[in-house]
Amino acid sequence: MYVKDWGVVRRQIILNRKIFCRTKLCHSFSGRILLAVIVILFGVSGAGKTTLGQLLADELGWKFYEGDHFHSQANLDKMHAGVPLTDEDRQPWLESLRGLIERCLAAKENAVLTCSALKKSYRSYLRVNEEVQFVYLRGSYELVADQLRQRHGHFMNPELLRSQFATLEEPEAAEGVIAIELGRSPRELVDEIKKKLRFDPSQTIE
């Protein structure tokens, strides 16, 4: 068979490999080929987890899961009333999130998940394996409070913000968490998240 333009053929092969990579949910982090990756964006309420998580998932073509949707109605009612949740309140919620993560990994489904994960023990519980990557959205109380005041249609009572900061355990270096400083546009923050994850959607499987 005679092929007139090998350049065209080569570009088509590369395109087919990219399509295969996306459809099979195979992506490369730090030179490793992973069948499934879960990126968890965490931080206090008002940090912008949902906005950034949805944007990140859309750009990567991954599934997006909002952690707040896995709370029980009793938890939602407490938060509406401005009552801080206890560890006992959060345990069933954490179990639901861990179950979701395990199902995604088993199904080889890449996903972006948002949740507060304020304590180190919560993050340890959700870290099912090394393919679970944590991204911490870090900002001062004043910055996050200002963002929260500008939000509409969200159930989080602003009065709970101080209790969330009091509960927050800043991630330690040993946790291997990626920290992102707030105070910039969602576009800038998502670009930094992708850069720090060292993820390149244009990479193909080698």
Give the strand content: 5-15%
> Largest beta sheet, briefly?
5 strands, parallel
Overall body shape: globular
The arrangement of helices and strands along the chain is HEEEHEHHEHEHHEH
How many E-type strands? Answer: 7
Query: What's the quaternary structure here?
Result: single chain
The number of helices is 8
Low-confidence stretches: 1-6, 8-33, 200-206
Lateral arrangement of strands in the main beta sheet: 4-5-3-6-7
Give the terminus-to-terminus CA distance: 26 Å
Cα-atom Rg, whole angstroms?
19 Å
Average of pLDDT: 82
Query: Could you estimate the helical fraction of the residues in percent?
Result: 40-55%
Secondary structure class reads alpha/beta
What does this structure look like?
This protein has 206 residues and is of the alpha/beta class. Helix content is 45%, strand content 15%. The protein is built from 8 helices and 7 strands. The strands form 2 sheets. The protein has a 5-stranded parallel sheet. The chain starts with 5 loop residues before the first helix and ends in a 9-residue tail after the last helix. The N terminus and C terminus are likely disordered.
In short:
It is built from 8 helices and 7 strands; from the N terminus they run H-E-E-E-H-E-H-H-E-H-E-H-H-E-H. With 206 residues, the chain is an alpha/beta fold.
